[in-house]
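Worked example 3. Consider a protein that binds arginine.
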Amino acid sequence: MGRANKVVLAYSGGVDTSVCIPYLKQEWGVEDVITFAADLGQGDELEPIRQKALDAGASQSLVGDLIQPFIEDFAFPAIRANALYEGRYPLSTALARPLIARRLVEVAREVGADAVAHGCTGKGNDQVRFDVAIAALAPDLKVLTPAREWGMSREETIAYGERCGIPAPVSKKSPYSIDLNLLGRSIEAGPLEDPMVAPPEEVFAITSPMSETPDAAEDVEIVFDAGNPVAINGQNLDPVAMIREANRLAGSHGIGRLDMIENRVVGIKSREIYETPGLLLLIQAHQELESLTLAADVLRSKRQLEMQWADLVYQGLWFGPLKDALDGFMDRTQQHVNGVVRLRLHKGNATVIGRGSIRSSLYVPEMASYGSEDTFDHRAAEGFIYIWGLPTRLWAASQRTSS
Ligand code: ARG
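Given these inputs, the predicted complex is written out as structure tokens:
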């Protein structure tokens, strides 16, 4: 009689997803709730979370280490695409969702589930990302979304949980809603709902407050190969280590905090605080290297397509046709993005102070120079400008005669 027999629930260990377990069983007649918790480098202890799901009534509690695919297959493409939603947010939360959805579907297949479930509410972006991704990957799987339908307030949810033996959140309850992974943290709700209220220092965890940043500037050199960051300060790093090191370096100088009003998919504006030090540093460096290595028209087209790439990832369309097509463009351009960028980190700012590329630079010193090595034909400019300016001269003349 239930909505499904066997359900794989995306599990974070928080109150909402914990309450989903007894709710699915008691209210919707699900027999087996199998939870899946993803390790995305958020630094939480996974074993207590695994146990918590069992305590809440899960028949199986699974955890999966997704850190490497998260960085290699989701974060690095975002760096290559310089993906910044609305010009600012580097999609640290959004990028994780299609990966979790993909793994959720795989687990559902492995255990023979007839549905998957998540604990997203009805006004966020994450529900969109999960639902669309699951529908694309497994159209036959039902998606159960208790938190979108139960209509309980936060207090009622906690009370429901307590009746089912799920302890209320311990310690002094944080008023914030926080999502975190190796790419960074997003913080919303509580006092932040007033857009005029400055974010209190307590919301930050991986970027230093300005008062604790070093007084001395620190220079870093980041090497890219085919658009991927591969070394920092002469040290070759695999993708996961690269993100960790970039987080450490930028974070220690207080770089990577954002405070913005963001347009959600469901049409509402929300106030978001982010700290994504490494990702922002790497994107800044990557953009700079592209300015040296990509032709002007490719660069201009790419900047427009980057916006579309960021939009569609934000909007949950990772597995859609535009993403696939844009990736073709991005990958082709990245063959040329090889070289090094030097940045100076100091007091919340990363400033590019140098860029170079032996293999792929389009900067030609004999063309650019005003010195004796200059080989540019200055006289050729006259004919070019005569024709270039022709429409302007004709139009200006017509304005004079018609007035
Ligand atoms: N607004 C961001 C996004 O849509 C982050 C939302 C994450 N959730 C949270 N509870 N802070 O990608």
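Take a moment to read the result before moving on. Residues 72 and 239 are 6 Å apart (CA to CA). Residues 93-94, 125, 177-179, 186, 188, 262, 272 surround arginine (CB under 6 Å).
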